[in-house]
Design a protein that fits this description.
The structure is a single chain. 38% of the residues lie in helices and 23% in strands. It has eight helices and ten strands. α2 crosses α8. It starts with a helix and ends in an 11-residue tail after the last helix.
Length: 269
């Protein structure tokens, strides 16, 4: 009898121990199955006729971190740039990938910068030129992405340029225009602060993105050593639709930068 009671007591202790050890796991399981708030996220795409351009690594990393930190799920809606801006103005959802402009700040709430893209100037190797200030572009035809902003200084100077060639989200098309001298310089954003790295990337990928366009003998693409600007990338939402999400995102971004999960970015102005 005494032995039976001892065995029963031992079994109760083991059961209690199992329950206590299982509590964190059970709590985590409950939390993981908790329904997350879904937020429509507007992001840029290329035109519908072409294959979808993948989102870049900093973009994806930022979205993943904010989702986990705020315990939310983003529902991506991808549109060509002008339509994205229209849907944002209509209050469809939260957007990611925007630069600040004075005009946009009149109607939108912006987050702090998530990351920065360096705006590099690309030319043919036989058409390079020294660049010290925006005035050095005055005699140039500049290739840009349609609907994109490259900073207040460039945007206000565009009317003084020899020409502007606006293109859709198509790197092959823009590089071909450089090769054919339809443009003198092309603007391209990249997260790397090293022009040599961006130059090597463009030259190494030309054969892949434009196999039908061989490079002329002795010609390569060159990236000027000084960037035009740093384009800071933000979340944004129609001001009247902001229910506090921008403040929450700012808290998440600051925390991510502090602990090293997201890159440090100098504040934009």
């Amino acid at each position: 009898m005494t032995r039976l009671l001892s065995l029963q007591a031992n079994m109760r202790r083991k059961l209690l121990s199992f329950v206590l050890l299982s509590l964190p796991t059970l709590a985590w399981a409950a939390a993981s199955t908790e329904k997350r708030k879904v937020i429509i996220l507007l992001a840029e795409s290329n035109v519908e006729k072409n294959a979808q351009v993948p989102l870049n690594e900093p973009f994806i990393n930022t979205l993943n971190y904010v989702e986990q930190d705020l315990n939310i799920n983003f529902d991506p809606h991808r549109y060509p740039w002008n339509r994205l801006l229209q849907r944002l103005a209509e209050g469809e959802g939260l957007a990611f990938g925007l630069s600040k402009t004075k005009e946009r700040m009149q109607t939108l709430h912006f987050s702090i910068p998530a990351f920065g893209n360096y705006i590099w100037m690309v030319t043919r190797s036989d058409m390079t030129f020294p660049y010290a200030s925006i005035a050095d572009l005055k005699s140039k035809t500049v290739g840009i992405l349609r609907g994109s902003s490259y900073g207040e200084e460039f945007d206000s100077y565009k009317s003084k340029l020899a020409g502007i060639d606006e293109d859709l989200f198509s790197l092959p098309s823009r590089l071909k225009k450089l090769l054919s001298k339809r443009t003198d310089v092309m603007l391209i954003g990249h997260r790397s602060p090293d022009p040599a790295k961006v130059e090597a990337l463009i030259n190494s990928t030309m054969a892949e993105v434009a196999p039908d366009t061989p490079m002329p003998a002795g010609i390569t693409f060159k990236v000027l050593s000084k960037p035009l600007a740093i384009d800071y990338i933000h979340f944004a939402i129609l001001a009247e639709k902001d229910d506090g999400i921008i403040d929450k995102i700012n808290t998440a971004l600051r925390r991510g930068k502090r602990i090293g999960e997201l890159p440090f970015v100098e504040p934009d102005k």
